[in-house]
Amino acid sequence: MPxxxxxxxxxxxxxxxxxxxxxxxxxxxxxxxxxxxxxxFGKARALPxxxxxxxxxxLFNEKSRWGMTSGNFTPVSDSGxxxxxxxxxxxxxxxxxxxxxYLSTQELYTGFARIVANNSDQTPMCRPIKSTGDQGGEFVFxxxxxxxxxxxxxxxxxxxxxxxxxxxxxxGAQVLVDGxxxxxxxxxxxxxxxxxxxxxxxxxGYGNYxxxxxxxxxxxxxxxxxxxxxxxxxxxxxxDTFPEDAVVKIMNIREKYHRGIELAPGKYHVRVLASGYDxxxxxxxxxxxxxKTIAVHLEKxxxxxxxxxxxxxxxxxxxxxxxGATWTEPVTGMxxxxxxxxxxxxxxxxxxxxxxxVHQVCLDGFWMGKYEVTNRQFRMFRPGHDSKDYKGVDLNxxxxxxxxxxxxxxxxxxxxxxxxxxxxxxxxxxxxxEYACRAGTVTMRYWGDSERDACVYANVHDxxxxxxxxxxxx
Length: 474
Fold this sequence. Notes:
The protein is an alpha+beta fold. The protein has helices at 13-21, 53-61, 86-97, 105-118, 375-381, 407-421, 430-438, 454-457, and strands at 27-32, 64-69, 102-104, 125-128, 140-142, 153-154, 162-168, 174-177, 180-184, 187-192, 195-202, 209-215, 219-225, 235-242, 247-250, 261-263, 266-273, 280-286, 291-297, 326-328, 335-339, 342-346, 359-363, 366-369. The strands form 8 sheets. Strands 6-13-7-10 form a 4-stranded mixed β-sheet, with no helix packed on it. Helix 3 crosses helix 4 (105-118).
């Protein structure tokens, strides 16, 4: 919503959220000198009682999507000081007068929000933006002279060369100039020849900082460095099985499997076996630093008594899987079941016009998802997906079906899975869906022709005589 007077268009919150969610930057901060509709922001997070360098490092390491607006539901005031609105003036003033080397979004907002509220009818807001992938971090402002471009500081009059000073959030980190160790942080007034030099700051357990600076004769340069914790090189793998006592083997390594086994990044051939169940084999990929969990559900082995001594025959290469055979997709862990090809009578002569006439449809065999796509699986594609319904009912459990997914969302998920999984997936056609749901039945009702058997096989307790059939006797 714009401020007083029509100066900017109304922006749709959902469109704004989608645009921010699609950004590849680790940190995004949206600052808007306007009011908003009330559905943009998530829950606020409190500042810690003690703020240290570790606090800023934690904010830096986690992805963030924040917004700061000058008002809530009511139009905001444009009148202020220096040609700015009240909100813009106080925001710029807080940034200009800041003397701290690091400043978080909440610290900045807290420093001037009350002044804006006390001098106008508007209430500024600063919170994470909902449904955009915020993971607990914040946009951190770094004082000029830090990792970004900073001005040269004139050296003392007695000095005629160039000098380097380095501050870091990790004490004792090694400082290298052009690959040569020259000291540890904090480093003070290290003499350096004028010209371009590569400055490297490194510490065990942290990622390296490296940048080339230009040093001028008679000038000193202060460099502030924020080192981030290094990602572990190896990942881990855990396999959830049904039955729980199934044996898990990783076929392309020598080490015996145990839950959470540490693995180098790469692809692994997993085999799951249990007595009385059909075994499953699948390939899964473990990324650098990834703690991966996959689920494998074994199906009980069908037992058939042979009429005469059985003969083992190698199946032809073109043979299809047995009806009901299962397969686990390695990227998401989704279970698929084989639906054999066949023909059935599609439609109904007692339904709506678009269901008529009944006609024969024949399909080739296909793999069908055994269960709905869960929140955990869908969030591999879209981490910020929220399945909470409009009444506030929490449907966000990892194993609950993903809901509030549009047709375009579903198509985008399929495209992502095709790229990740290396196979061709699609949404089931209407014919495939009905054929799979019928599971071999041929009548209008899956239990048979008897209307009264609905009381035994179907959940019709709340049905009334106003519906198609009278189930009042149930």
